[in-house]
Amino acid sequence: MNITHRAAKLAECFARNPWKILGLALSLSVLAGWATVQLPVYTSRQALLPQDTDVAQRFNAFLKNFGAASDLMVVLEGAPRNELESFADDLAEKLRAEPEIGQAASRLDTAFFLDHAYLLMPAEGLDKLTAIAKQPILGGGMEENLRKALSWSKDHPPLGGAGTDLQTAEAGLNLAAFFLEEWRRWLFAETVPASFDWNRLLAKNGAGGMADGYFASRDGKMLFLFVHPKNPSEDFENLGPFVGKVKQVSEALAGQVKAAGHIPPTVGLTGLPAIEYEEYTNIRRDITLVIFTSAGLIAALILLVVRSVRWAVLIFIPMGLGVLWSLGLALVTVGHLTIITAAFIAILFGLGADYGIFTSSRIAEERRTGKPLVEAIGAGIGSSFIAVLTAGGASLLIFGALATVDFPGFAELGLVAAKGVLMILISTWMVQPALYALLPPKLKEINSPITQTSPVEPGKCGGRFPKPAAVALVILAIGGAVFGGMKGLGIPFDYDVLAMLPKDSEAAYYQRRMVAESDFQSEVIIFTAKDMAEARRITREAGKLKTVAQAQSLANLFPEDRGERLHKAVSIGEAFARADYAKQIAELDQAGLSAKSFELLREVLENGTGIIDEAEEQAFSAGHDKLVESLEDVRAQLLAISAKLAADGEQGRGRSESFLRALLASADAGLKIIDGWRQAKVLTPAQLPPALRDRFFAADGSIAVYAFPAKSVYDPGNLDALIKDVYRVSPEATGFPTTHQAFAKSVVEGFSRGTQLALALCLLWVMLATRSVRGFLLAALPLLIGGGWMLGLMALGGIRYNYANIVALPLVIALAVDYGVWFSYRWAELKGYSPLEVSLAAGKVIGLAAGTELAGLGAITLASYRGVSSLGVSITIGLLCCLTATLVVAPAIGQLLDSRRKSSCEKPVL
User: In this model, does residue 162 exceed pLDDT 70?
Assistant: First the structure.
């Protein structure tokens, strides 16, 4: 007894005992339903990544010691700078009060850093302060000091002989240019400025956007808040409430600002938490849309084509039960679902319908021959068993091959999908016979292929290609497939995760702007040092890398010579207190800028241009082009200020006096800081502000150094250069860029091997199942030709691979292998029919099967998440190509392989 006969007998047994079989199926479904409810869905990216690699272990070790590795970035823009700062401070304070928030920082604690500036400034800077304290330079009042300056400008010593190095000279000129620019701003502004724009000075010295410690874009028009969650888990159960709370608090504060009669700033969220939040919410919404849309489209298509509710039930229920059983089985095998495996349900709907369509159509044909119902069920299941087993087995092997991929997210997809196919096959062979016995569709409602024949007039038989046309068609089809396959080899992989987000993604928009307009981005490199000496080395070396925009570290607060610096700071504080600079500044502020002093000041400015000209000439002769540019900048400022003062007269004097008072106020603030150095003590990590201590120091004593990439890490060239540099600094570096590089390569390499293995197993299985060269070629060539066309169209259409659509090719192989297998099976069975007649006969079932897949998977193209929608587009292209190859090219292939095949003078009633 062969396998076909055994399958027929078993189906008859199921048909004779329908209630027992359906009772068993119901029991299994209840059990699977319970298991599905218990099945956890891991929404974290970490659930998709391999955890046994060095990269993953370093990253997990950091998470264990420091908590979350990535901050949520709150971006503020669209308001004046002072309003942005006020909003940022209020928002940070409100966020810190929320239980979901661990940290929220709108700025660095500048007061702390200024109080400890003696640890941060160059050693020669401390020496200069010591010299200033010993030689007071402010004595004598404003007028007397200006007379001294004027006298010096008229008879100054030779320039360039003071032993000042080039770097110090340039720094001094930049400082002078800054103060002159500020003075000019005071003179030209419609209203007198309230304070100095220190941000421009910091920007010139590589600390753009850090005025008063605020995290800002280089132009200062965007401010950033760094928000850390209380729970570092990336699972949506924790991520969702965290991001939701930040949105809620931001909206509430914006409402308060608006109620107060002001226009609130625009608030945007970016950073990895925002990206993952958008990913999950969009994918979840898309999955819901796709499942209901695909189910509705499939049901509508089946009802439209077969016009029988019962037949639709015979296809849907076994498929649905198979999907449910596979979900229950996932609990005891994989143990969980991820956002990838959960999304695969829609694909199983499209794939699972094929088997029910194939078997039910054959049962209907057997009934048309007059066989009793149970016997017809057995005969239909038996006659289609090899074809369905071949197609289903090929899909099972293809998904099983994907389970060998190193990337866990996709390996689990392969495992879940393979079990899904197996469960749908079992459900189709077991449940459909029982359902068919209870709910047999009426024969007049079944537009089944090849159920009756009718005579045709002599001479009207046909259905064969002219041989030259058949040869040309096959050559063109294979040639197009080869061309497409070669073009497909050049399809690039898009590493940009942001490009997969919806077109209107807020997180992607602000992330790109942060990279372009600031020195901050969420994809940060993280170094960990075991002690402060190593942290200092890492900070120094990372700061020199061209691939790093800036390195954040507290190592500079703990220099090697901190004891000596502390002693100097105390001495400087006491020396300045004895010099009583504060009293002198107060006297200058009280005196202001008299008319006489103003005239002296103008004379000093006029003489200053001559000194600058002399210095420019010397710098040019020495070949110091950059120094010449700095001198020319100062000269231009001097000329502009002199002209403005001459034109404005008394108004110019008043504006200049306001500028002087602002300058003196800044000097007084500096003196108070220096005065505080008299009580300076040795700094320890425990004395750091909590936000700094928690960010940079772990409980085990390790120290973190953060390096912000200079360019986007989603460009593979930039990423490779960055990782190469940082690993030279420390092979223990971690952070998103390191995991992104390792896992991106793992995805690409793994799927390349997985797809090749899947195709090889598929073809080997089809060869073993068909057991003939002709049967194998008829089953395999449409798949290979359609796959080649698919790759060619993707390449010509500019479609790139990404983390979602890279599975399109193996999925198309698994889905479309059914077409060729069913055509090959029908070709062997309908020996009395011509190639085109077989194509018409098999085409209805194949077309319906393909239609259900396209309805199910085509709905994916509606997804807002572009990674998912691009998968739908790629699969749709592949299925249409394989369907065309099966219905158009396969008959020509069959005719060339079976040249003796003739048309009968009968043709199918369709």
Answer: no
Element (H, E) at 33: helix 18-38
Among candidate residues 362, 345, 346, 353, the one with its CA nearest the CA of residue 301 = 353
Query: Would you give the DSSP letter of residue 218?
Result: T
Q: What pairs with residue 104 in β-bridges?
A: 227
| Residue 704: both structure tokens together | 């973190």
Q: Which two tokens stand for residue 362?
A: 């054959």
CA dist 272 and 269 (Å) reads 10
Q: Please say whether the beta carbons of 260 and 483 come within 8 A.
A: no
| pLDDT confidence band for 451 (50 / 70 / 90) | very low
For 440, which DSSP code?
P
Q: Are 758 and 813 in contact (CB under 8 A)?
A: yes
Tokens of 299: 């049901």
pLDDT at site 905: 46
pLDDT at 752 over 90: no
Of 209 and 176, the one with more pLDDT:
176
For the chain, the residue count is 910
DSSP letters for 132-165? HHHS---TTHHHHHHHHHHHHHHSPPPTT-S---
Partners of residue 707 on adjacent β-strands: 525, 551
256's CB contacts (< 8 A; 6+ apart) are: none
- The backbone torsions φ and ψ at residue 495, rounded to the nearest 5 degrees and listed phi first, read -80, -5
Strands 337-338 and 41-42: parallel
The SS3 call for residue 910 is coil
Backbone φ, ψ for residue 624 (5° rounding): -90, 80
Q: Helix, strand, or coil here: 869?
A: helix
Q: Which residue has the higher pLDDT, 13 or 871?
A: 13
pLDDT at 350: 67
Q: Please say whether the dihedral angle defined by the alpha carbons of residues 626, 627, 628 and 633, taken in this order, is positive or negative.
A: positive
- Torsional class of 72: left (φ above 0), alpha (ψ -120 to 50), beta (otherwise): beta
Strand partners, 552: 706
In this structure, the number of other CB atoms found within 10 A of the CB of residue 908 comes to 18
Residue found by looking up tokens 């249409």 in the block: 880
**In three state form, how does the secondary structure of 331-379 look?**
HHCCCCEEHHHHHCHHHHHHHHHHHHHHHHHHHHHHHHCCCCHHHHHHH
Residue pointed to by tokens 């990337």: 407
Structure tokens at 31: 């059990």
CB 319 within 8 A of CB 353: yes
Q: How confident is the model at residue 346 (pLDDT cuts 50, 70, 90)?
A: low
- The alpha helices in 403-531, defined as continuous H runs, are 408-438, 467-488, 506-517
Q: Between the CA of residue 76 and those of 82, 88, 226, 265, 291, what are the distances in Å?
A: 12, 8, 12, 6, 38
Whole-angstrom Cα distance, residue 735 to residue 628?
43
Residues 493/802, Cβ–Cβ less than 8 Å? yes
For the stretch 710-730, pLDDT in tens is 888 888 889 999 999 999 999
Q: What are the E-state strand segments in 692-804?
A: 703-709
The least confident of 461-470, 585-594, 889-898 is: 461-470
Task: Give the burial string for 40-53 (b: 16+ CB within 10 Å, else e).
Answer: eebbbbbbbbbeee
For the segment 640-681, what is each residue's pLDDT rounded down to a tens digit? 888 888 888 888 888 888 988 888 888 888 888 898 999 988
The token pair that represents 386 in the structure block: 């090899």
- Residue 700: CB atoms within 10 A of its CB come to 11
Strands 525-529 and 703-709: antiparallel
Enumerate long-range contacts of 645-650, CB under 8 Å, 24 or more apart: 645/187, 645/598, 645/602, 645/605, 646/602, 648/187
Two tokens at 538? 């890492």
Q: Mind listing the domains of the chain with CATH numbers?
A: 3-38+276-497+741-908 (1.20.1640.10), 71-107+214-270 (3.30.70.100), 112-212+559-679 (no CATH)
SS3 content of the chain, % helix, strand, coil (to 5): 70, 5, 25
